[in-house]
Amino acid sequence: MRLGAEGEHSEDDAIRLLSSMFSPTRTAEDKKKILSEEFHISVTEEINREVKRMCNLSAGILEKGIEEGTLKTLFRLVKKGLISITAAAQEANMEPAAFEEKYKSFYK
Fold first, then answer.
1. What is the pLDDT of residue 87?
2. pTM for the full model?
3. Helices then strands (H, E): number in the chain?
4. What angle do CA 2, 62, 97 make, to 5 degrees?
5. pLDDT at residue 63 above 80?
């Protein structure tokens, strides 16, 4: 679901709710406040856990994307000869052999 800020201002309650809950910029506390105040949904312990879990999942996905982007950048630098595999592995907090394996797999 990719409605951006427009979805949070929709006249459709379902679109507005989903857009707010899937917003990557809102904190778990913001989302619970919206549920409670705007949509009059009681924030039970179960809902509290699920909102936190959903926010942690989003953060994990973002972190993984950044990590993969960093690896791809390091792979390109190694391929261009601008950095050694050992130095790239150190930047990626990996053992050189593990980095080299991923590097070779990336360019297969």
1. 92
2. 0.54
3. 6, 0
4. 140
5. no
